[in-house]
Design brief:
By secondary structure, the protein is an alpha+beta fold. Helices cover 42% and strands 21% of the residues. The chain contains 10 helices and 10 strands. It has a 5-stranded antiparallel β-sheet with strand order 2-1-5-4-3, with helices on both faces.
Length: 334
Amino acid sequence: MTKDDDQPGSTTRHGGSDDTAAQAAMYRLMVENTLDLIIRYDAGRHRIYVSPSSLEMLGYAPEEMLGGYASGTLHPEDRAEIDATFWRVGPAVPSLDLTFRGIRKDGQVIWVEGRYRYLPEDGGILAVLRDITERRHAEEMLAEANETLEAANRILLTLAQQDGLTRLANRRRFDEALAEEFRRACRQAQPLSALLLDVDQFKAYNDRYGHLAGDECLRRISRAIEAVPQRPGDLVARYGGEEFVVLLPATEAHGAWIVAEAIRQAVAALGLEHLGSAERIVTVSIGMSSIIPGGDCDQPEQLVAAADQALYRAKAGGRNRVAGFQDDALATAG
C-alpha cells in the first residue's frame, strides 16, 4: 500500500463508494443507450422502470408506460396467451423467453422477442425486449421462398419422371421402381410380375392416319391401361415408342395374367379404327413374366427380358393376345 493510500478519504482499487457509484453510472449508461427495451416490474407486475428505448420501439415515452400493466401494448390475438405465460414467471419458473406481436402507439404491429427473469429479492421481473420485425419478415420471406423452391423441385422431379406425351411414368422412373421392387421382392421372398405391351401394327397406323393421330392413339391407350383396377404399388409406364410396361409387385403369375387380359380387352374396347390391322381396330399384344427372386438379387432386368420374350411369342402367335414366359431360373422359389 502506498503512502497516498493511507490518507483519509482515499479510494483504493478494492472498492468503496466511488467505485460503486461509477459502476452504477456505467450500468445506467448502458441501459439507457441500448436498443433493447428494458422494463422492471414490481411483484404486482406493474412497470416501475422503462428504459428510453421504449420511444423508438413502441412510440411511448418511458413515463407513459410507468405504472400500467403490459397487456396494453400486446396484439389482441396474442394477449391472452402472453398474459397467462407472463404470470407464470416466478420461483418455479425463474425465466421465460417469449415471441409475440406488439402494438406501437401509432397502431403499427411489430414482432417482439422478450426474455423475462424473476427477481427473488422483491418478487419482481426484469424484462429485456427486442424488436425482431425485420428478422421475422426475412424469415417469412425465406420460408415462402423455400416453399416455392420445394414446389418447383417437386414439379421438376415429376417432369423428370413423366412421359411428356402420355403423362405416364417414363422409362427412367420405371427403371428406378423396378430396381427397388426387385430388391424388396428378394428380401421378402415375394413374387414380382411385369407386363410388356406393344401396340399391334403401329407403324401401319401412323402411315395411314398420321403421327398426330398416332400420338392421340397412344394417349387413349395410356388412359385405358390406367383405368384397369390396380393397387397403389403398381406402376404403368411408357417404355418407349409404342411400348408400355406395367410393374406388379407382390403379384404371382395368375394375378398378372388377369391384369394383362383386362388391359388387352380394355384397349380393344376403345374401338379405335385401324384398317391396317387384321382386327380392323387398335389392339395390343402383351408379354408377361412373373418371378420370385432367389439367391441372385442383382439382375432385375431379367424380369423385363423375360416379358420381352413372351411379347415376341404373343406377336408371333397372331397378336392381340397375352403370352407368358416360364423359366425355372427366373421362377426360383426364394
